[in-house]
Structure formats: C-alpha cells, structure tokens
Amino acid sequence: MTNLDPDKIKVILATDCGSTTTKAILIQYVDGEYRQTHRGEAPTTVEKPFADVTMGVVNSVTEIAELAGRRLVGDDGRIISPATETDGCDIYISTSSAGGGLQMMVAGVIAEMTAASAKRAALGAGSIVMDVIAANDGRRPHDQIQRIRDLRPDMILISGGTDGGTTGKVVQISELVAPAKPQPRFGSDYSMPIIYAGNKDAREPVSEVFSEGGFDLQIVDNLRPVLERENLGPARDKIHDIFLEHVMAQAPGYDKLMGWTGAPIMPTPGAVGDILQTVARLQEINVVGVDIGGATTDVFSVFDETFNRTVSANLGMSYSISNVCAEATMPNVLRWVPFDMNERELRNHVKNKMIRPTTIPQTREALMFEQAVAREALRLAYKQHKEFATTLKGVQQQRTVGDTFSQQTSGQTIVDNMKLDLLVASGGVLSHAPRMHQTAMMLIDAFEPEGVTMLAKDSIFMMPHLGVLSSVHAKAAEQVFDRDCLVYLGTSVCAAGTPKPGKTCFKYELTGDRTASGEIIGGQMLLIPMAEGESGTISLAPARGIDLGEGPGKKVQKTVRGGTVGLILDGRGRTLTLPEDRSSCQSTVQGWLDALDVYAETTESMAV
Amino acid sequence: MTRVLCSLLILLGVAPCIAVGQVVDLAPPTDVAASDVPDDTGGQIAVKWGLSPQDRPAADGSNPVLSYVIYRKLVQTGRGLESGAETDAGAGEIIFTSDFDYEANRPVGSVPYSVTEFLDENVEGGVTYVYAVAAAGPGDSFSPLAVAAIPVTAKMQYINQGKLWFLIIMMVISIVIVYFVFYAKRGGKIKVRPIAGLEAVTEAVGRSTEMGKPVLFVPGILDINDIQTVAGITVLSNVARTAAQYDAELKVPTARSLVMTTARETVQAAYLGEGRPDAYNEDNIYYLTDEQFGYTAGVQGAMVREKPAACFYMGAFYAESLILAETANSIGAIQIAGTAMPSQLPFFVAACDYTLIGEEFFAASAYLSNDPEQLGSLKGQDVGKIIAAFLLILGCLLATLSTVLPAVAPLRMADLYIMNNVLGEDGLIPDEERVTMLNNEINELWEAQKAEPAIDEGAN
Q1: Which CATH number fits the domain A6-98, given the four candidates 3.30.420, 1.10.860, 1.10.3470, 3.30.450?
Q2: Measured between beta carbons, which residues in chain A are less than 8 angstroms from residue B246?
Q3: What is the pLDDT of residue B85?
Q4: B359 touches chain A (CB under 8 A)
Q5: Do B203 and A168 touch (CB under 8 A)?
Q6: Burial A428-457 (b: 16+ CB within 10 A, else e)
Q7: Could you give the ipTM of this predicted complex?
C-alpha cells in the first residue's frame, strides 16, 4: 500500500470486480476539481478458464485507456503508477464482490444484544450474514451445531458478554462452534478465521476452546464493552483485514491484484457504506441508499451519523423475484398496475424472469409489472431495514413522572423518513429505467419519504469505487460523488398525515429559478419541471394535521433542487394507502402516473 | 280464613281505640297505613300516618305532641298465631283492644313530632302485622291508638326493581365478555396495545444474561390473599420462563411464607415448561421476614452485594417502593415495576425504567399468556368501561344542558331519568311523583316566561 499525499493525487483509477462484470472508472483533477472522466467495463475473469481476476481488470482499464488516450497498462501487464503527464495513474484502488462476496456467520449471547451488534459489524463491513447463533435463538445446541456445520462461511465473528459480564455463556457459544468444525468456502488448507470480539475476561477460555481444530483465532476489542455503547470499529477493521489476507488470497489472481492497489481491497457493499457515511458526515445530512440486485437488496442508512446496512437476501428482481411476489402477495404487487392483468401470464412472466435473469421487459405492460414488483421488493427491504436499524437494546432508561403514560421500549427504529435528506437509488431496475420519472416514482412509492427529500440515482454504479477512494481521499470522493456519481432526479415534497380527499393538503409557493404557487389536494400528486442545476425556495403551508417537517400544521420553508425529473409534490399522505376496490385503485394509480408523466414518451406542459 | 280475620281486624281498627291506664287527652294521628318496603329481602315495613290535629305549636310556642309511638301486633293466621320475636310487644294478642295498655306494651319505635313515617326494620318475612300509632304528649299522656286499616306482610322480592338498570348493564357487559371469549376462541384477533413494561421483560433478563448478573424479583410485601400479589406471581411466571430460556439466575426474596411457597411452585413449573428443570434452584426463592423494613433492608442488602442487572417489583408496595427503586437505580439495574398502589406509582415511574400502572398490571396475565379466554374477558371489560364513560359523558352533557335550558321538558326528563333511574334506584319506570313535580316546575317556568314583558330594543 502506498502512502501518498492526497494533494498530489491527480489521476485515480478505480475498479469494482463484480461477479459478472469488472467496472473501471478514471477520475482526474480537472479545472480545480475532481471529475470522473472515463469508464470502461469487461467480463470478470475470476472463474475458470481464466481464473485470474487481473485479466478482467486489465481489460476494463484498457478500455478506459483507449477512451482517455492515456496509457494505463504497462508492457508488463501491470497498471502504471505513479502518473506522468500522459501515462498511468497516481493511485489504483479496487473493490470486490466476485465469488459471492464476503460471507460470514456471527454469534452472540443474546440475539437482540451482542448478537445484533455482531451482525451490524459484519453487515457494516460489507458481508452477507449467513446466520446468527445466539443462546436464545430457540434452537437446541445440536441444531445449532448442525447449522454451523452446514454453513461454509468465510469467517466467523463471535461476540457476547459485556466486559466483566458473562463468561460462561460466551464459552458455551465457542464450544458450539469448535466441535462443529465449519469448513471454509475456499481452499482446503485454509484455517477458518474466528474473530472474537466479546467479554475481555473470556478471552483466555475462548482461546483454549479454539486452540485445537485448525482455527485461526483473532481477538479484538469487545464490540459491546457495556450494553449502553457499541464499539464496532475494531471488529469491522479485523473483518476487512481477514477478507484481504485470507478470503481474497484464496481467490484466483487476487494476490496479484492486491499488489497493485494503493489501498486495501474492500468488499463492494462495505465500500458503498463508506461513501454514504463520508457524504453524510461532510454534508451533515441523513442519507438512505438502496442497491436492488437480482438476488438481494442492500439498504444503507446514515441517520445522525449512525450507519446501518441490511441485506435482504431473498428480495431481488431476477433470482428472487418469485420470493418477492410470494412475500408481498400478488394483490399487493398488482395494486401498482393501473390495468387488469392475467394472473397466469404474470406467474409465467415471474418464473421466466427467475430462470432467465438477464431478460429485460419487452412491452410497456411488462415494464410496468416489473416496476410494480420492484416497488414491493424495495418496500419490504426498507421495512426490514427499519426493524434492524434500531437503538440499542438492554439499555437503562431515564424517566420522569411525565413519562407515566408515554413509556417506550428501547430498540425503536432510528430510521425517520421525515429527517431523511437524500435518497440514493442504484441497481438495474432503478438505474436503467427508461425514464427517470419511473425511478423517482418507484422510490417515492416504496420508501414513502416525508417532508422535503432529494432523490438521486447512482449513474453508473460508481459508489463502490468512491467508497474506497473516501478512505484515501475523502474530498475527491465527495466531489465526484456529488458531480458525477449522482444523477439528481429532483426533490420530493411529501405530506405526512392523513389528508382528506378533495380538501387542501398543503399550499406551496416556489421562488428562485422557477416560480410557482398553488395548492395540493389530498390524494393529488403534481410535478413542477425544474431542471438540473436549478434551485429555489419553497414555502409550504400544510393543513391541520399535515406535517411537512416542522410538525403538524406548521409552515415550512426549504431550499429545493431540481433534477432530471423536477419538483414532485405529493399530497397522498403517509402511510400511503391505496383503495381496496380494484377499479378504483387502478384509476387512482393511473392518476398519479399521469400526474408525474411516468410512462408518457413526451411530457405535456404543466400549468403551474 | 286469613282474609276473614283480616276483615275483622279492619272493622275493629277503623275507629280509634280507647286505651285504659293512661291519660288520654290528645287527638290521635290520622290515616295510618303500613306497607311492605319494595325491593328488599322481606325484613322491612314502612308505616305512614297523618299528623295529629294537635301537632302544631301552641300560643306559648310549646307543642302538645312530643312524639309518635308505633305499636304492632301479630295477626293470627289459619295456622295459628305466627311466632315472632316480639313477644314483649304483645305475644298472644292478635288485635289492639280498647283497653290497650301503653305501659305494658313495648312500642317498636317512636319518632319526634311532625314526622309522619317510620321504617320498621325488625320484622320477619312472611309474618302478617297490624300497626297502630299513638301521639304522645308530656308526662304519660297518649292519644287513642290509630290502627292501620290493612294488616301487612313483609315479603322478599327476588328482583330489586331499583337496580334493574344495573342488572341490564351487567348483562350487556357479561354478554359482550362471553361474545369476545368465543370470538377469541374461534381464532378472532383481539389486539392488545403494547405494554412497554411487559415487552421489556425479555430485554431486562437479556441484560442480566449478558452482564452475568442475577435477576431480582420482588413480589411485594403483602400476602398471597392480596390480588396484587397474585398478579405479581403471574408476571413472575413469565419472568421465570424467560430466565429459563436465557439461562439467567433468578432470585426471589419474599416477605410472606405463603408467597414463597407459591413463588417456588410457579418458578419450578416455568423451568419445567421450558425444559430446564435442572436449572431451577429452590434456594433462590427465599423468605426474609414479615417485617416491612426488615424485608426492605434484606432486599437492599442483596441488591448492593449481588448487583442484579434487572429488578422487578410486582405486587403491593408501601413506603419501601422508593427505597428499593433508588437502590437498584444506583447499581445500574433495569427496573420494571407494577403495582395498583396509587400513592407509590409516582415513585416507581420516576425511579424505574418501566412501570405497569394499575390496570396494566392486572391485564398482564392476559397479555403475557395470550389465552383467548383472558383476552376476551379483557376486551369485554373494556367495552364495559366504554359504556360507563359514554354514560358519564351523556349525563354530564344532559345535566349541563338542562341547567342552561331549564324549560326544555325533554332535556329535564332525560336528565331526571339518568340521575334517578339509570344511576339511582327508581328502576325502569320513572317515579310519577318526581315526574309530576318536574312538570309543575317546567309549567311554572313557562308561565313566568310568558308573564315577562317583551323587551323593547328600541327603547332607551
């Protein structure tokens, strides 16, 4: 790894080695700011017959070199670094999710406490959590051992007990793992890495348990030293280290790739989380990011500087599409479709998509159906995220007599849509929607943002690259994120509460680059064109009981930013409810789609 | 036969009797009548009469009548003389004779002058009595006896007409409870709002497990016959189940030996139910002392020594509540309290993490068990409370409106009906006397309003 002065970094080359495609981008310092200038991609070559990930990397970088007219790959097949006037780059960085990414199993004493913290640490580091073993998970020890034996994780994270707390239970958990002898995914000569991040008093007995059996025990600080505080950093860092040293070292070509990079290779989701945290910290905003894939949906959130990530393993748009339809139920999916559809045909469509994941919708109806499924997949994934992203459990509460009738349990979700400032979308169905309006509508319907929220999408899935970059050059990462990574769709202004149909929901007055004023009726949506780069100030006067950010009925004034879609005013209320009756539901949804010009080829001028 | 005797008595009793042995210089009371008190268990007879013509102040301010004395006789029936407790008052005599001896016969009661009724509460159900009243003056002067025209028999009524509304409301609530019990049994969903204190049980026990500290459960200081202690033991069962699942150590110091025995049985059953009988330790449920502050000191000592990570206070508490809660707060324990002692609730709310207040505490059993019968009962009781609240609001509204608009007859009638029939004891049918009075009052108001001269707004 190179230690470069950030001010001297002018040319940055970044790759993301995905399961199927290796994507490369070139970032250059142009006119006093960092910009993403070129991109290239090539098939990933981690599998046989190539079995060398660097081949795909070189191919994608070569494409950039041709486009940029800059020589990036040397005669020896290596990436040229440092940069000269016409050749090479100052730093090369990479992420990887090839071969299924990082897969972990975590264990803790109580599922809602130390085990939940361990899961947060693992997910935050970018891994997929295969299972959580806990003393109260309802399984008998022999079932737990069998489960551990069946799994083939890349590593295991064990936590449990506060410092000075229980020792016996932690040892018991360790004694479940040790005799199960879980086998790693890669390499037969590979010692299963165990990270112990529990009670410091239990380190010795835990070491004793893992002294035999071919385990590679690594001890880090307790991730829950007291129940009132989480300390996930050491465990996350250790996960990254082991990911590089053990997991990546086993994958074909990664040992070579690691020698090229100027910063540690990161798991792709971990890097996405890092860039969102960096942006949230630098801009002092709350961010939610979503990446909907074929098999899984990742949701990231940063609220009040607290980062959370969840992976909904069975919610996706191809391999998992059947599961989405089963979990959400077909009537819930169809409520977003404004016309009658033959259910048998739909089921065939769903199964076809599952077995042929790369197909794309050929008709407008198929597109509408697929986007309806995406709404439900996103809604369910966000629901799971809200349930996971909570305050810590097991914490002592401070009360006053005023709390007599308003006592709340700990473990409440920290995800607050009213406080959300930026919602970022990525993943095929969102990024590659024919019209940006469709992406915006899917986001609003699924996430139900409240108040004033910016909507954006990751233009070319650049967030992983920028995540690694943020660890070496946060300023460059933020600049590229803001200027090139995100395509701003616009701003949504959504009323929370239950507006009365036909009655005023809120009044608005827009000033700045565009001027408009009027009122939004309960159940109505309105699109005000506002191009990218335009901004203005919107004054909002909600009706009684309607909240737009300052409390029910209170006036709000906010700065809004335009985008490819514009300014969206939503008077449908929250929680979003659709009519039960099918025909009434269809006409309502059609009204919303028309209002936002979602599926029209040409946008009619709107009277504002 | 009884009727014949009764008729004979009537004939004899119509005219006032002339008694002997006493000075008789007063006019007797008039229109004496006795009647069975309705809606009772047959132990009361009401006697009423008209005032003696002399019952009014004389010129010097004195009243010749000082009191009225009430006598009664048993009426012989076809089965012979009814036995009674009042042998002194005239056993063997069946009628008031003309030579009635005021001194030899003990009265059943007396009332001051100007009073025209007497309630005889010492009668036997099913026995027929005849009553007589004499006015009594200064010295041993009496008026002749005025005998009631009709003998009366005290009878028991099976339904208290005055409580009919109470019966109707109770029937409605019972039907609602039964309905919801069956509804829940059939699989209907009954939603119980989340009770934070009960939701937090797993969290508190989990904290103890993570910290490797025991869970302390205090079941109050009263005995097992107190309903709060019983409710506390119900919660203990749930805490014990969770402790068994999490393999946490549970300690229960008690202030009563019977509570200790019950708690041991409960905890043992819970551990057995969770398949952890080996983890049950009888010695962890122990008796300290019956003395309030001795017990408090003992529990405090356990807290300071063992530093439990979770403390539960479920039962009846007095002055020790704040002492215990503050001590546990100082050692950093999660505390969950539940009591129906209103005076202790503020202390628990301020010092504990979660507090079950009154009804929440008693609903804990249904909430935790999810048993359809208990949930149905809980829902039915809620409906009862809604009915009570509705009647309260309606009553307040009608009372206010009838005060503001006193001449509106339907409002006054509705107010009268709710006050005297639904909440009072007039039964289903309004009392005619009250209705007449109300109508008269309303008519007077109308008359008064008509009589008022119209206001000439133009005049100055």
Answers
A1: 3.30.420
A2: 110, 135-136
A3: 38
A4: no
A5: no
A6: bbbbebebbbbbbbbbbbbbbbbbbbbbbb
A7: 0.79
